[in-house]
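Entry 14. Structure prediction run on the chain below.
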Amino acid sequence: MCAVPIGPQHQHIADVPDHRLLCTCRPCYLLFNVESASRGHYRAVPENYRFNADFSMTSAQWEALGIPVNLAFMFHQTDQDKHVAFYPSPGGATESLLDLASWDEVVAADPVLDGLITDVEAVLLRRLDDGFECYLVPIDSCYELVGIVRQYWEGFAGGEEVWGRIDEFFASVKERCRG
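Output returned:
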């Protein structure tokens, strides 16, 4: 956004109408930390990570989402005024184009999920054998996961390396939640 060089660790701004993330220096990031800045065109991506220990979702609700993998992220998109769901794939972030009525039921039952900042915070879900892990994360973290899947996926099932890196990613998210 300006001429100040940025390093590998930096903040992001969401360009809301164009659905993209911009890398920024700290001063530019702070300019857009106020909701009214730029009339919502640009929004600072928050830096907080939270674990939702009380999250509840049934397998039937998950199946109704039609997401063919065990990872997904959902967020409220301003321009569509609805929740959208994506999952990481070797081709990038793949949007679920199915009806998200079952997700709306989950959100209605868990007020924490409805309190996220639109466009820049997401619910990151990981389906496990015994249920789900639910994290409330900055949207750029979700796209970091997408990048891991794109970079390391091999063959039909992904391969051992990608799943190891996904485990490392979730370990890092858990650590950020504690911090």
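The chain is about 35% helix and 30% strand.
Filed with the rest of this week's runs.
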